[in-house]
Amino acid sequence: MPTEGNLDSAVAQCPPGYIGGQYRTHLASTPGEILGELPLTEAAARSVSAGRLTTRRALSGDDDRLLVVVGPCSIHDVNAGLAYAKSLGDLAGDLGDDLAIVMRVYVEKPRTTVGWTGLLTDPALDGSLDIGRGLRMARTLMLEVAEMGLPIATEWLSPSAPAYLADLISWGAIGARTVESQVHRQLASGLPMPVGMKNGSTGSVGVAVDAIRSAASPHAYLGINRDGRPVTLRTTGNPDCHVVLRGSSGRPNYRAEHVREAARLLSVASLPTGLVIDASHGNSGKDHEQQAVVAREIGAQIAAGDTDIRGVMLEGFLVPGRQELGSDEPTFGQSVTDACMGWDATVSVLQDLAAATRRRRAATATTR
Ligand SMILES: O=C[C@H](O)[C@H](O)COP(=O)(O)O
Ligand SMILES: C=C(OP(=O)(O)O)C(=O)O
């Protein structure tokens, strides 16, 4: 692959051994160039630092609020993302005594086979793959969201993306499709925020536990520095990784027996038992209406006094459901990837989770 110079839109020669001989490339700017154009502002830095602290404390139980990672499956329209962030910021304030709300700003999408891979890689949504533009759009949006005081969650997919975006993120995910990948575990070991390890796509929680153990250790791997040069990145290990139960095809894992089994696996590995449950994906069968049902069942476990469930993930956007990418009349604020809960359903589910958290707090206080 080309490593030097500005080869924007150039046709580059593949190194020996690559299939294809020639390929088109839009070489992105270096992390230093993009961070220079779009620097972390003081307001954003304060927001990220507070967001990381809150997230860590909610996951450890030092903060008895429930962590809620909620937002669109993917960002495809920056204006819709911002409109959602404004509403969510207000709701986060209203429910802030009980919920620590973090917004999903997912700009890279893993795919089961093929499909649109997210704003970062294909910001024009048409296969033109202008990653340089995608990086700038993603960073601009994340800066605005952070400046609103709303902590941001994202999935880490490309090993180079953290060099451009990590300073804006309060909670990261390694997804079900990559949780067994050595590269992603090494990446997580150097990230400065809590990272949720999803159970594997076939349902294995053991691989997420292995990922936590791996990411907690120091590693050295090939990465890039601010100037985009390949460097050996040495990490010290991330102590804030945890399991995210997301179910698998036809087999949800959000019920009390699943939480107990995951906590057992974590205990056997001498890890803290606090975890997050994703009400979407394999736990909802990607059905946004079922997602609300699942979230309420998780709320019932919390209200009954479960203390291992430290967080919940939800996929929500302004308009319920999903639409096909490239429709002639796109609906503003509706997902182009997985179906999401609409705004009204999201408010109602979050209010219920806040009430469940109050009941857990009361139950825990009386048993002390
Ligand atoms: O969260 C989004 C999707 O579940 C993920 O990107 C995979 O989507 P796909 O199964 O449609 O490829
Ligand atoms: C792709 C996602 O999740 P998972 O890895 O669980 O499929 C996601 O949360 O967008």
UniProtKB/TrEMBL annotation:
High-level lineage: Bacteria, Bacillati, Actinomycetota, Actinomycetes, Kitasatosporales
Reaction catalysed by this enzyme: D-erythrose 4-phosphate + phosphoenolpyruvate + H2O = 7-phospho-2-dehydro-3-deoxy-D-arabino-heptonate + phosphate
Protein family according to the UniProt entry: Belongs to the class-I DAHP synthase family.
Function, as annotated: Stereospecific condensation of phosphoenolpyruvate (PEP) and D-erythrose-4-phosphate (E4P) giving rise to 3-deoxy-D-arabino-heptulosonate-7-phosphate (DAHP).
Top-level taxonomic group: Bacteria
Presence of keyword Ion transport: no
An annotated Gene Ontology molecular function: 3-deoxy-7-phosphoheptulonate synthase activity
PANTHER family: PHOSPHO-2-DEHYDRO-3-DEOXYHEPTONATE ALDOLASE DAHP SYNTHETASE, PHOSPHO-2-DEHYDRO-3-DEOXYHEPTONATE ALDOLASE, TYROSINE-INHIBITED
Protein's name in the database: Phospho-2-dehydro-3-deoxyheptonate aldolase
SUPFAM superfamilies the UniProt entry points to: Aldolase (SSF51569)
InterPro entries for the chain: Aldolase_TIM, DAHP1/KDSA, DAHP_synth_1
Protein EC: 2.5.1.54
Pathway annotation from the record: Metabolic intermediate biosynthesis; chorismate biosynthesis; chorismate from D-erythrose 4-phosphate and phosphoenolpyruvate: step 1/7
Keywords tagged on the record: Amino-acid biosynthesis, Aromatic amino acid biosynthesis, Transferase
Ranges of residues in domain DAHP synthetase I/KDSA: 57-349
Statement: the UniProt record of this protein carries the keyword Magnesium: no
